[in-house]
Amino acid sequence: MAQQVTDAIVTTVAANLARVQARIADAATRAGRSPASVRLVGVSKTFPPEAVVAAIRAGLTDVGENRVQEAVPKAAAVAAAGESPRWHLVGHLQTNKVKSALALFSEIESVDSLHLAESLSRHAATPIQVLLEVNVAGEATKGGFSPSEALELADRIAALPGLDVRGLMTVAPETNDPEEVRPVFRQLRDLGRAVGLPELSMGMSGDYEVAISEGATIVRIGRAIFGSRA
Ligand SMILES: *Cc1c(COP(=O)(O)O)cnc(C)c1O
């Protein structure tokens, strides 16, 4: 990639990251929570390794990708630059990519079927941290367990060897007004309580402050850190 493009990315990403971190801390404080109770995952899909390295050097510790095929070479380039963040998978995982996913990711946030959970369980050499993805709004275009399936299956999945089921994840419907999706975040929180799992991964660039006010413990932010995607 052209050097000027790279330089521009480095400058922008550091400033964006600082702004996002400050807004996360403010949102947590307003909700009466400790800023340390919210983890930031910077979602770098479509962005080059240089941008990831810049974000890590500016303080990002956790990086999210939604496709194994994109993440593997990117992680190799980031490692070659001397950086090793915790990689999170946030997109659908096909069972034929389970082995390569386990080799790279520290956390798999997008376990969206019993079949996938069983496959991860079979192949995990050491327990892998996972979240169950819930399609709270029931959108036809999105994967994930329905809330009732999550209720029904959480214990069974948590009992599988090799899995450390930490909580729930959701992708809220796209909206221009984040207040519109507050009920989605609230439902995920209630569901998390019902299944007794502590982590709630919810909130993206457009809605993370609302998600934090509803109890998000992980926010997954791409555009607000890395810029708009082509
Ligand atoms: C792309 C993506 C994000 C980040 O979205 P932004 O709008 O860029 O902040 C978060 N979660 C998942 C599952 C994604 O695919």
Describe the structure.
- The protein is an alpha/beta fold and 230 residues long.
- The chain has one domain: TIM Barrel (Alpha-Beta Barrel), CATH 3.20.20.
- The protein has nine helices and eight strands.
- Strands 7-6-5-4-3-2-1-8 form an eight-stranded parallel sheet.
- Strand 2, helix 3 and strand 3 form a beta-alpha-beta unit.
- Helix 6 packs parallel to helix 7.
- The structure holds pyridoxal-5'-phosphate (PLP).
- Pyridoxal-5'-phosphate (PLP) binds next to strand 8 and helix 9.
Distance between the termini: 15 Å
Small molecules bound: pyridoxal-5'-phosphate
The CATH C-level class name:
Alpha Beta
Number of strands: 8
- The tally of helices reads 9
CATH hierarchy: architecture: Alpha-Beta Barrel
The CATH superfamily name is: Alanine racemase
Unreliable segments of 5+ consecutive residues = none
Q: Assess the beta-strand content as a share of residues.
A: 15-25%
Fraction of residues in H or I helices: 40-55%
Which structural category do the helix and sheet elements fall into?
alpha/beta
The CATH topology assignment is: TIM Barrel
Major sheet description:
8 strands, parallel
Spatial sequence of strands, sheet with the most strands:
7-6-5-4-3-2-1-8
Shape: globular
Output mean pLDDT. Answer: 96
How many distinct domains? 1
Evaluate the radius of gyration.
17 Å
Encode the helix/strand succession as letters: HEHEHEHEHEHEHEHEH
